Amino acid sequence: MNTPLKTQLQKQTNEFFIRLEEVKPLCDANCKIKDVDRVEHILNALINGGTKRLQLVSDFDYTITKQRTADGSPVLSSFGIFNSCKSLPKGYVEETERLYHKYRPIEVDPHLPIQEKTKYMVEWWTKSGELLVGFPFDENEIDEVAFKYKDSLRDQSNVLFHTLYRLNIPVLIFSAGLGNSVISVLKHAKVLLPNVKVISNFLRYRNCLLDGFQEPMIHTFNKNETVLEGSDYYELVHERDHIIVMGDSIGDADMARGVPASSNIIKIGFLFDHVEENLERYMNVFDIVLIDDQTMNVPLALLSAIEAQEKKNLEKSFQFNS
Ligand SMILES: [Mg+2]
């Protein structure tokens, strides 16, 4: 059955059917939805499935953190935080910058096929890891720099993380950046709660000296649930086939790849740079595109719609049983 027809039938038979216009932040002018019927249909599936089937999968850099701050102060990426650590050898920082200028244009080139790009990304991350070998590094330095960025999370992030924790919804943060910085920022922002799992690149040590990154390498084009295969978390999230995905790069829309085909997924894309040129591409891969929205209002609104209905269902079943 095609989605609009199915949605139509659902509207007729389900007294709890919610229309997108009832979810206030989705009505804002900076919220763009290509296929309203489809999103309405998935949102209602998420609502009917309740919190037990739900998980949130999110990118970190410029998705959990802001793309723009109110006072114009810059927000560092997770690798940016690491590269700001004063004790790193000068040659490391210079070489890292050289690699960035070589590989970043390839990463964002809209014409190069993903397969081709992946080859270069593996090369980039491998070379970056090789630069991090053979010198001492005190991780407390990351903590000191990250502390300065504890307020760089999107507005309402604290409420979002605590709501997800209260509702027992797993949060998977997928980052092709540096996991040590991600963990540190989340910790200082007081949102590193027990339901939060970070999959990223973490520093490895040998004989008290840096020894590159731990395996597996997470780069821009393999950050999806297929890299979790075999892990405990893979088992856990595979029982949760209702997913809210959040990201700020086109590739982030693919983060839930590897979950069962029957899954219901709502993808939220935060768009900030070159809005006019990028809007169409973003609308093709994300269900909901938010233009220069530096808040967590939309994911929170989706969660509260899901929670509100779950409460009503519970009350109903209580009345029915008593
Ligand atoms: Mg990002």
UniProtKB/TrEMBL annotation:
Subcellular location: Cytoplasm
Domain of life: Eukaryota
GO cellular component, one term: cytoplasm
Alphabetized UniProt keyword annotations: Cytoplasm, Hydrolase, Magnesium, Metal-binding, Nucleotide metabolism, Nucleotide-binding
InterPro entries in UniProt: HAD-like_sf (IPR036412), HAD_sf (IPR023214), Pyrimidine_nucleotidase_eu (IPR006434)
EC number: 3.1.3.5
Enzyme class name: hydrolase
GO biological process: nucleotide metabolic process
Catalytic reaction(s) noted: a ribonucleoside 5'-phosphate + H2O = a ribonucleoside + phosphate
Family, as annotated: Belongs to the pyrimidine 5'-nucleotidase family.
Protein name from the UniProt record: 5'-nucleotidase
Species in which this protein is naturally found: Glossina fuscipes
Source lineage: Eukaryota, Metazoa, Ecdysozoa, Arthropoda, Hexapoda
UniProt gene name: LOC119640332
